[in-house]
Amino acid sequence: MSIIMKEMFQLQQSPAPSMRKWDRDNGIDRSKNWRILRYSYLLLMILAFSLETFTIFVATQVLTQLATAQRVVPLNSLEVDPEHAEKAARGLFGKKNHDSMIDFLLKNFEFEYATCRLYFVTGLLSFAVATSLRVRYALRKYSDLSMSGMCCLLTVICGMLTYTNATTITYGGYVNLLKRQLQLSIKFLQARVKSGPLSVVTLILGCVTLVFAIMGAVSPEFDYFEEDDEPAPQQPKRRW
Q: What is the pTM of this model?
């Protein structure tokens, strides 16, 4: 988390003075594609930070509920038999036996389970993709080397997704996990509309985030160089 916070805005800063002349000569300073790359890096780092923060928050809340046995009732109660609610209400130390820990989580904390799995993997992938874009940008002067470094990270990302889909225990892969989490999120927000406006505000802010992200991707507005490109004043020479 600290690494993401520290490196989030690195590509929005002006490049090193040694690279400015090369960037101007090769049209990097006015290139829309390179601006989109830097813009994408920033958004991916923000996405990774947000997802990992939410994952930590949800996991902490579940641990608290498990420690105090506050809730052992499935969120998706419409999809289970009516007898399960009565059996699950006996608590963590009741007579109900679960086949495995995953079985227990799916029956009692499916929303939290799907959210933590999806957000953790997505945040990790977002950070890896952002790092690959940064490698491409940092080594832009050496085209072959930068492409090699970026493709190396993309290979690792594809390998992670392949392994995740091949060894999945529930939902049948990343795409199905994404679909299930979206379904559970909609049910979660709908169930809490009457409790207060926060669920509606959450949905509105999510839509606004997507709209402005797309608008910003079409025409990034930040400048490549700082406005004050004037040479620094020379220090007066000392006379001994």
A: 0.74
Nearest alpha carbon to residue 122 among 206, 36, 44: 44
CA-based angle 159:161:164, to the nearest 5? 110
Reading the chain (240 residues) residue by residue, the pLDDT tens digits are 566 666 666 666 667 777 777 778 887 777 778 888 888 888 899 999 999 999 999 999 988 888 776 555 544 443 444 444 444 434 444 445 456 788 888 888 899 999 999 999 999 999 999 999 999 988 888 889 999 999 999 999 999 999 988 888 788 889 999 999 999 998 988 888 888 888 889 889 989 998 888 887 776 665 555 544 445 455 555 555
Give, in degrees to the nearest 5, the angle at Cα 148 between 44 and 11.
Answer: 35
- How far, in Å, are 19, 29, 89, 126 from residue 15 at the CA level? 6, 10, 60, 24
